[in-house]
Input
Amino acid sequence: MARRRILYEGKAKVLYAGPEPGTLVQHFKDDATAFNAEKRDTVEGKGVLNNRISEYVFSHLNEIGVPTHFIKRLNMREQLVHEVEIIPVEVVVRNIAAGSITKRLGVEEGTRLPRSIIEFFYKSDELGDPMISEEHITAFGWANPQEIDDMMSLAIRINDFLGGMFAAIGIRLVDFKLEFGRQVENDMVRTILADEISPDTCRLWDAQTNNKLDKDRFRRDMGGLVEAYREVAQRLGILQENEPIKTRGPVLVK
Output
């Protein structure tokens, strides 16, 4: 396999230089991490499922006019995406109390919030992705007020779409994380959705049983991570029941 230039390697993905200027190849790894990578493992097939689920979600977001970096899926583990300058702010949308908000505010897990809540976190593994305010974001120049407005309005649209999409297949959208980037087009800069949307970045509960279908299965040592991700893919119609996951694909070249 021809050597490819790695531009960035994160906990779950690798970004390579793309075939055309302004493009990247996003490779989904099988690595599973939690608690800022203090806990890690390799779960065969996870990257394939995340690639397929994220492709499905981003394709539909593109269709309804939400600007994203997604262009097309290349193979079982890779996507072609637009190159963007990532804004170092993670946007978290919460519909039901779970995760850190239950500890910070003493809200019982599973409590439906009075309304969807948007929170911001500084994207920094070294600092543990601390929670931040709009004042922090503008004061330190991580994003300007217009970009914050863009991220919030897009997050609300995405939440509405995802909530309906998952409700239709019997899944509750508890919360999810988004990342955005700056894309330059004809000397204009616009804010677009980047990264991925998958069970790695969402909390998804079965609507009837509250069975967890997301990365909390890894965080809490519940087991069945790939089986849960497969369940999400099957309900979305991406995989047929008992369809094998082709885990073979492009090999990372260092």
About this structure: The first strand starts at residue 6 and ends at 9. Residues 6-83+224-236 form a domain with the Phosphorylase Kinase; domain 1 fold (CATH 3.30.200.20). Residues 51 and 77 are 6 Å apart (CA to CA). The chain has six helices and 13 strands.
